[in-house]
Design goal:
Number of helices: 8
Strand content: 15-25%
Oligomer: single chain
Strand order of the largest sheet: 3-4-2-1-5-9-10-8
Largest sheet: 8 strands, mixed
Distance between the termini: 47 Å
């Protein structure tokens, strides 16, 4: 029997999978790197794909807000993601390959938004640059990044019912960024007024859900959702971000009202 070489520490000899191991760490507060940060995600499918009539008024609103608030703008993919996903799924591409392919689209949208927001000192950053944000805000910059989290080829296999679609997409990436930075808010700007019990574009009698918990929403097992299901699962483990707010990015002033603390749209609580 060989003797293991050890360096003394409180986890010495542990497997790191024992259930009771981390109980003593649970109540320790996490460092909030940017506690005044507002993470705002604008969808590619719900916002950017509509072009100048929707995007340019939003650019003006976001630019003005960036002068008063710490904002990290996160972009989604949209129609081009659906195009490449359709081809990739048809060809039988693995989930990790699809994640690599689709991440490039949200990066393109981040570049376009950074260009449009240049008058407000916008700077396009990569997901690996999150720890540069305190410095960038100190310089008065407005950081913009793409929402696809950097799992890439190591993306988790998706449920079989998803056909291989990467589960961690841009809504989830925005929330993960907010969580690690200890942000004050995570706002998702969509093309609807919030979360409905069914798709309001297909069902005129759809009912808006103004407030709900992530666990309640998971239990409802709705046929369609305005945000990614994986985000709801991750919210159950959140320690920094208390909720996600969904607002209509097509309506002027909605993001401003959300930043001012109004309970508009839908609020999903992380519990």
């Amino acid at each position: 029997m060989h003797e293991r070489h050890e360096v003394y520490n409180k986890l010495q000899g542990e497997t790191l999978v024992r259930k009771k191991l981390f109980d003593k760490y649970k109540e320790r507060p996490l460092i909030k790197i940017l506690p005044e940060l507002n993470v705002i995600k604008i969808g590619g499918h719900g916002i950017i794909d509509y072009g100048r009539d929707v995007v340019l008024p939003l650019v003006e609103e976001l630019g003005t807000l960036s002068m008063q608030h710490q904002i990290l703008l996160v972009t989604g993919g949209g129609v081009r993601v659906r195009h490449v996903m359709d081809i990739g799924l048809d060809l039988g591409m693995p989930t990790g390959i699809l994640a690599e392919l689709t991440s490039k689209i949200s990066e393109q949208n981040a570049m376009m938004m950074a260009t449009l927001l240049a008058p407000w000192k916008a700077k396009r950053i990569h997901t690996t640059d999150l720890l540069e944000l305190p410095t960038l805000f100190g310089m008065g910059a407005f950081p913009i990044t793409h929402g696809t989290p950097p799992y890439g080829l190591y993306e988790h296999p998706s449920e079989r019912s998803d056909g291989g679609i990467p589960p961690h997409r841009t809504d989830t990436g925005a929330f993960l960024a907010a969580e690690v930075l200890g942000a004050k808010r995570c706002i998702l700007a969509k093309n609807v007024d919030g979360l409905y019990d069914k798709n309001p574009f297909n069902y005129p009698d759809a009912t808006l859900i103004p407030e709900i918990t992530a666990s309640e929403l998971i239990a409802m097992d709705l046929e369609d959702l305005v945000l990614e299901r994986k985000l709801l699962e991750i919210m159950l483990e959140s320690r920094n971000v208390a909720c996600v707010q969904i607002v209509n990015g097509h309506k002027k002033g909605m993001i401003t009202r959300a930043l001012n603390g109004e309970n508009i749209g839908t609020i999903i609580w992380a519990r």
